[in-house]
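Input set for joint prediction.
Command: fold jointly, output tokens.
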Amino acid sequence: MKKKIAIIGAGIAGLTLANLIKKKSEYDFMLYEKQDSLSLEEGYGIQLSTNSVKILNDIGFNEINDEKIFHPKGLNFYNIQNKKICDLDLSQFNSDTTKYTTLQRSTLIEFLKDDVYTQHLRFGKSIKEVSELKGKVFIKFEDNTNDLVDIVVGADGIFSNTRSFFESKKNEPKFKKAIAVRTMLNSKSELNIDDEKINLMMGKNCHIVIYPVNKKKELNFVCIIRNNKYEPDNIKSLVDKVISQNSNLEKILNGELKSWPLYSTSKILPSSNSKVFYIGDAFNGFLPTLAQGAGQSIESAYELFNLISEDKSDIQNTYYQERSKRVKIVRKRSNLNFFAFHLSSSIMQTIRNFFIKFFVKRKTFVNSYLGTIYKN
Ligand SMILES: Cc1cc2nc3c(=O)[nH]c(=O)nc-3n(C[C@H](O)[C@H](O)[C@H](O)COP(=O)(O)OP(=O)(O)OC[C@H]3O[C@@H](n4cnc5c(N)ncnc54)[C@H](O)[C@@H]3O)c2cc1C
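tokens >
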């Protein structure tokens, strides 16, 4: 009998795994999503470094409409007053077929949903109860439907509810005392940035990232602001702290903005059930300061898929060991960037800028800081 896999959550991680199973194996599977549809409107930009593009190409991403994506050649560093510090060549990690890519999240979700939407995706599904039955996992959903499967994959994001059914140890995500606000720009506005690159502006307790998400060069604008509390009704006073550092940002930050608090997972915990796995943010949620959240969701799905396909005996342990190693590297770098991008003292900023300028031109450093992640 074919093995059956239940994937809980149709985000980037769950959809990637579903595509890999559908296109490259004989396993039976079903994706169970809590919402009534896939969130296609709220498409903030996503950066995909070459490690994840390589995996996506394996499931046909290289055939995506070229107009809907962009390949930024580099990253420009600025201070918050828009004075350029230096730049980093991102194309050094590209090959002919695998290039650093930016796009809207909705474009990626549209691509990932295509082959699994009709037959393998069920909406409005939340787990109500789980039990073991004849060596399999019996899942009962809130709407009184059920499924009997060999493997359960929790892909339900950083606040994973799947964990609460299978794990006694909690892995509460921590609010990182930072808020993200985002919008889309149709032009560079008053900013002196390069609309063919990723632009990073570093200010006091805040940083801004702007990059094109398609060939029309619509620009994704994200500003991360440090604050002890998240008050969605009081975003204005928060963005005023950024505008006070550069008045050219006023028009953008006084426009329509979406906001959300930033969380990350501090502990990496293994699954306590040999038939249950976690991928994407459900395994570990990162700060967005290395732009690896989606990339690691894709990687984790790929790693798990390969292990399941090979049908080895100690999949659980191998998956956990390999994933943890990777997560630790990415987490360290994301946390260091988070610290460095937001320095408030001007002396510290000057020292930081000196070091960034020095290091971005050192091939050995760039290869060890980014290459180890991008070349996986
Ligand atoms: C400001 C910001 C910028 C970012 N920028 C980047 C970037 O440039 N590059 C990058 O790589 N990453 C970026 N990320 C991170 C990235 O978006 C996430 O890490 C990634 O989307 C996680 O994917 P996931 O599938 O694990 O989880 P999610 O995207 O959270 O998907 C989980 C899915 O599970 C569903 N679900 C939840 N609970 C249940 C349940 N109980 N039952 C069934 N279904 C459920 C949800 O509805 C959802 O569809 C950014 C994040 C932030 C906050």
